[in-house]
Amino acid sequence: MTTNVNPEVITAFQDFQRARVLFVQRVANLARFPINVELMQNAGIMNLLKPLLDDNVSSIQQGASVTLGRLATKSEKVAQSVVRSGLLTKVRWPFVS
After folding, report:
1. Domain residue spans in the chain?
2. What pTM did the predictor assign?
3. How confident is the model at residue 92 (pLDDT cuts 50, 70, 90)?
């Protein structure tokens, strides 16, 4: 059985993964500063992080979890939103694969 591999398809998937990694790294860094928390929440960060918490790449899951944790520690409003939305159950702890 011969498998045809189109390099453009592979490149597209690699680009998508790099973009997700870059996004979680950037928002995790931005979440370190309290001034950014409300802006990020208003921009819909919770909805953007939700699918990343279930990503098939563990570093993306962990980056999304770190971001969520940083946001929650900077704002009680965000922390309550995390609990109410059920996102806390999706958080990937570093010890769990």
Report:
1. 44-92
2. 0.81
3. low
